[in-house]
Amino acid sequence: MNTRAIGGSRVNPVGLGTMNVAWAYGNPPTRQDAVALFRHALDNGCDHFDTANMYGLGVSEEILGEAIADRRNEFFLATKTGIVVEGPDRGIDCRPTSIAASIDASLRRLKTDHVDLFYMHRFDPKVPIADSVGAMARLIEAGKIGGYGASEWSAAHIREAHEVHPMIAVQHEYSLWTRNVELGVLDTTRELGIAMVAFSPVARGALAGGVDTAALTERDLRRTHPRFLPGNWEHNRALVASFNALAAEAGIAPAQLSMAWILAQGDHVHAIPGTRSTAHFDENNATAALIVADDVLDRAGALINQQTVRGHRYPDAARATVDTEDFV
After folding, report:
1. Which single residue of 9, 52, 121, 235 has CA 20 to 30 Å from 171?
2. Which residue has the higher pLDDT, 26 or 251?
3. What is residue 299's predicted lDDT score, i.e. its pLDDT?
4. What is the residue-wise DSSP string for 113-165?
5. How confident is the model at residue 88 (pLDDT cuts 50, 70, 90)?
6. How far is the CA of 301 from the CAs of 101, 137, 185, 294, in angstroms?
């Protein structure tokens, strides 16, 4: 299988996002099933696992540590800091002291002495970029992290941070129906030699066989996301049906078509779909080996894009925390 670079490492272009084993979409799996999923993924060629300290308040990290820490040299490990969901400091926090404390807590949960990549999960306007990046540089010097990255940062702030200390990865939501990175981040990362890691590459499940909004559980994040709400979802569901038909015509799964389109946007682009299912993992994992005709990718891009989809990608509260360039 072809690999792609993140810093000085080469990994499979399709990794595994681990948020939904602990939080966000539907009911999480049992701990036993989550452990089995991670071990299955590692056994079947996944070598890029992505987590964060806020996923289930550390539960995702703990499960990863339990499942595969004994095989630490077989995979690239990324986690994140900077979003505080409880207590008096609730909000965005990328102060140097917070970054230093956060990595130590993550390493304990992950049962390892280092991670390969440590992201600032959101941009913190209260802290000078040089201060936050300086804290990351000190963690690199200490051997606790291999490199640092940022999630949902603007192109200008990525450039500013990169000048202080080279950044190895940027993570953003990127899919056929979320194209914000095309306003600057995609070109900036390509120019600077930074990996662009796409989260939610199958549009929060919409481009992975569809989503039944009536069946979403009470705490499912999509119940608050405009694209899944009445008035928008009916229109978007029709687009999804046409997309599913295109995937069937090409002889591949909808999720595979969605990620094949993502990976075709640049050799520096990676995808980290999340799943609770080993069968869905196998389907996603097979994407990098597929050859999808350019005309099929072009038709997918023309069918589902920022102009054809209705509704913003985030509700107002979440939208306010994002630094990425946005469409008017």
Report:
1. 235
2. 251
3. 98
4. S-BSEEEESS--TTS-HHHHHHHHHHHHHTTSBS-EEEES--HHHHHHHHHHS
5. confident
6. 42, 39, 19, 11
55 labelled catalytic: yes
Distances (CA, A) of 220 to 24, 213, 232, 247, 255: 5, 10, 17, 27, 20
Residue 1 has pLDDT above 70, yes or no: no
CATH superfamily of 4-208+257-290: NADP-dependent oxidoreductase domain (3.20.20.100)
Rounded-to-integer distance, Cα 211 and Cα 216, Å = 8
Residue type, 13: P
Q: Of 55, 119, 148, 174, which one is the catalytic site residue?
A: 55
What is the DSSP code string of 230-279?
A: TTTHHHHHHHHHHHHHHHHHHTS-HHHHHHHHHHTT-TTEEE--B-S-HH
Strand, helix or coil at 55?
A: coil
Give me the mean pLDDT over the 80-86 stretch.
Answer: 90
Backbone angles phi, psi at 160, to 5 degrees: -65, -45
pLDDT tens-place string over residues 309-323 = 999 999 998 998 999
What are the residue boundaries of the structural domains of the chain, listed by start? 4-208+257-290
CA-based max dimension of the chain: 53
Give the separation between CA 103 and CA 120, rounded to whole angstroms.
11
